[in-house]
Design brief:
The protein is an alpha+beta fold. The protein has one domain: OB fold (Dihydrolipoamide Acetyltransferase, E2P), CATH 2.40.50. About 20% of the residues lie in helices and about 35% in strands. The protein has 3 helices and 10 strands. Strand 4 and strand 5 form a beta hairpin. The chain is globular. The chain starts with about 25 loop residues before the first helix and ends with a helix. The relative contact order is 0.11. Keywords: Cytoplasm, DNA-binding, Transcription, Transcription regulation. It comes from Lactobacillus xylocopicola. InterPro entries: LytR-like, LytTR_DNA-bd_dom.
Length: about 150
Amino acid sequence: MLVNQTAIADLKELFITVNTPQIDADSTNLRNNLDRFLNDQAITGYRAGRKKIIPYYEIISIHTENKAVVCETIDGLYQLKKRLYEIRELLPYRLFVQISSSEILNFSCIQEFALTRNGIYQVILKNGKTTYTSRRYMQVINKEYLP
């Protein structure tokens, strides 16, 4: 994919254009992800009665814990009021990967995928923590994130 940058002196506002020979699922997905990433760049988390706006780049993982959806950041855990499937729809595709029905990871926080003897991936994060994929999501991970 070719990436260009052009300076236009009389431009009032920064904008991005996606040029494509035809509008297809990939170009539409790219446009939607750019739009979400640039315009909806945060989610709201709660901890100890306080509300915090959490930018996407601070998110390490979002998972369920004791029947609640929590967001893990460098600062700790924050409870989220939305369900996991609702959050997945908000997050930019390719920047976040769903590894099971109960966990979504920030792709940039993943150090490596290691195939286990059971045939599932052990996911090793850059912060040293490990987690595992479910069989249901392995095919999507192989196709979309590990070509």
